[in-house]
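User: Please check token order:
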Amino acid sequence: MLRHVVLFTWSADADADRRAATVEALRGLPETVGGMTSLTVAEDVGLADGNAHTVLIADFPDDAAFARYAQDPVHVQVVAEHVRPWLAARSAVQYRTDG
């Protein structure tokens, strides 16, 4: 299994309503794009200074499923409309798990 982890830090222009709309758009990806076996999108609870604001963790059965997801037009549109305009920083990693 392949796990995809993304940390998002939002710009100062991303107010609470904008952040909530972005989280909801990301959480809708399994229904509109599919290919993943699980998806978690959550806001940081604020226990430590300097953390990213939001995390996305998605599991895929294999590399091909991740590649289809990454290139899917709906996924690309969600990123273009809900993520990039409000993004200050992003970090991601993909790694294999025992599943």
